[in-house]
Design goal:
Elements lengths: L3 H13 L2 H8 L3 H15 L4 E3 L4 E3 L1 H29 L3 E7 L1 H7 L4 H7 L3 E7 L13 E6 L1 E13 L2 E5 L1 H7 L15 E2 L4 E6 L2 E6 L5 E2 L2 H9 L5 E4 H10 L3 E2 L5 E2 L4 E6 L7 H16 L14 E6 L13 H15 L1
Parallel strand pairs: 3-4, 3-5, 8-11
Antiparallel strand pairs: 1-2, 5-15, 6-15, 6-16, 7-12, 7-13, 9-10, 9-14
Helix pairs in contact: 1-2, 1-3, 1-4, 2-3
Length: about 350
């Protein structure tokens, strides 16, 4: 198959009727242009130009070939312009995957403003609390709540994720309120996904505590409803239960402890290079919204705008190795936190 560059050289020679002039346009020497034309004629098995010492003219075959080559080069230019316009103008279908509850509470309410600002974008939302391979499944961007993981993907922090231990007053009235972390061993702890270790921060620093309970679900919303129904104690994000904490439907237990500060809310996307503008404006929009209205009741967390090559795994489904002793875990976690910086 003939290379596109050879078609371009041929078309320029045909237009200028001069190999030196065509070479100057392309930054090539006349000798190189002449050699490429000769190789093209050999490959096609036809003479494209009549050559004399003074003139260079197309043969009848060359005339027919030139008309078709011009059409081909025009289509290539149109295709490149199409890609360029789509990469610089926010338009097209934006495929997003995000956690169910977070999407309902903190994405859906803001979509009218986003779609009004970018009317040529259509949003295809896939809601799940399970981990999704965005490359394999063809998503443009994922909203993830979790910790950073090394990956070829890129993540941008949108907001901090504040998590507290909490329960319904009904549950606490029946089971009693835990006074120390060790008291959790005798309480019914509601588990999300495969998680049976809660990573916490408290007076001792960072630590891990293994918990047990009679209810587990891959759905964050299901765990939330069970929590409100008084089934047990859960580690939940304040963006998810802020209204219930304010109303008294839920109350914080062991207030000296909170979820690991390494857990944040991220936008995760495949590649920083050639990122479609529809992805960029969506991430910028969420960053703008969450800077003004953080999706949490604690609103003093710093906002960061740093792109790093990481993967954020779902906080609802983040597998954790068996915990070391609480003291050892605290020392190791402090070291890891310093490395994450």
């Amino acid at each position: 198959m003939t290379a596109i560059s050879d078609l371009d050289i041929f078309a320029r020679v045909a237009r200028t009727a001069n190999m030196s002039a065509a070479g100057r346009e392309m930054g090539l020497s006349p000798a190189v242009v002449s050699k490429r034309i000769s190789l093209l004629e050999d490959r096609l098995g036809a003479r494209l130009f009549q050559r004399t010492t003074r003139h260079l003219t197309l043969t009848e075959t060359g005339e027919g070939y030139f008309k078709r080559v011009v059409d081909i080069l025009s289509l290539i230019e149109e295709a490149e312009d199409f890609v360029s316009r789509r990469n610089t103008r926010p338009r097209g279908v934006l495929k997003v995957t995000a956690p169910t509850a977070f999407s309902r509470l903190h994405i859906a309410p803001h979509l009218p403003a986003f779609l009004a600002r970018y009317p040529e974008i259509e949003i295809d939302m896939h809601l799940t609390d399970n981990f999704v391979d965005i490359i394999r499944d063809g998503f443009d961007v994922a909203i993830r709540i979790g910790e950073l993981r090394d990956s070829t993907l890129v993540a941008r922090k949108l907001a901090p994720d504040h998590r507290v231990l909490c329960a319904a007053p009904r549950y606490l009235a029946e089971a009693g309120e835990p006074k120390t972390l060790s008291d959790l061993e005798s309480h019914n702890c509601l588990l999300a996904g495969a998680q049976d270790v809660w990573r916490l921060e408290g007076p001792e620093g960072q630590l891990q505590t293994r918990v047990r309970g009679n209810l587990r679900s891959n759905s964050g919303e299901f765990v939330r409803e069970a929590l409100l129904a008084g089934v047990g104690i859960a580690l939940r994000s304040t963006w998810d239960i802020g209204a219930e904490l304010e109303s008294g439907a839920l109350q914080v237990v062991l207030p000296a402890y909170r979820g690991s500060s390494a857990v944040d809310i991220f936008a995760v996307y495949p590649c920083r290079e050639f990122m479609p503008n529809k992805v960029n404006v969506f991430i910028e929009f969420l960053n703008e919204v969450y800077a003004a209205h953080p999706p949490a009741t604690e609103r003093n967390g710093a906002q960061h705008k740093v792109d790093v090559p990481v993967m954020a795994t779902s906080s609802e489904n983040n597998g954790t190795k068996a915990p070391p002793s609480r003291k050892a875990a605290g020392n190791k976690a402090r070291k890891n936190q310093a490395q994450l910086g």
